[in-house]
Amino acid sequence: MNGEREVLRDGAIPADGPEEAAVRPAPEQPEGAGPVPGVPRNAAAARDMVTRLLETEFCVLGEEGPVDVVVADALLVTSELVTNAVRHGGGLTGFNAEITDDGLLLTVADASTHAPVTAERDPAAASVGGYGWLLVRRLARRVSITYLPDGKHIVALVALT
Description:
With 161 residues, this protein is of the alpha+beta class. It has helices at 43-57, 66-88, 132-139, and strands at residues 92-100, 103-110, 142-148, 151-158. The chain has a 4-stranded antiparallel beta sheet, covered by helices on one side. The chain is globular, with a radius of gyration of 16 Å.
């Protein structure tokens, strides 16, 4: 991009860590607010939401071919983002999935202000876990993080072509 930084529609800057991200104020929420309606309880519920969205707006699932790979990638990115929010991000505080002209746009919010971690791996060691963020970055066409005072939003665009 010739030294220019991509700025997304909402003002977020694609980033790997807080030092490279734009900070915007968080929307105010009343004290003692309970779970946010429409936010899935876990990764399985988020995958179900994305599956229904893809079935209604993108394709008929279950057909063999390239569409299967695209759907599998979309569901894997969904699962990894939500699982990371639940396990490492202090809990899932928001979730949105929509089909755009560019693909499946996923927005996952959590309660942590810390950047996702990419662990160094010893190729000789068989380690379990720690590959989620690498998978998200590999499978998504674009990933951005917006850091807020009470957490962060991660937006991932998964191509559907």
